[in-house]
Amino acid sequence: MPSYAGPSAARPGDVAGVLRLLVYLVLAAALMVLDHRGGWLRAARVQAEIAVQPLWWLAGLPSRAGAALREDAVTRNQLMRDNKVLRNALLVSGARNARLQAAAAENARLRGLLASAERGRLDVQLAAILDIDLDPTRQRLVLDAGSGDSVRVGQAVIDAGGLMGQVIATTPTTSTVLLITDPDHAVPAVVARSGVRLMVYGSGRTDALHAADVPLSADVRAGDLLLTSGMGERFPPGFAIGTLGVLKPDDSRAFLEGEVKPAAQLDRGRDVLLLRGFKPVPAASPAVVVPAQATSQPASKTLAVTAAPVASLPASPEPAR
Question: CATH class for domain 127-276?
Answer without folding.
Answer: mainly beta
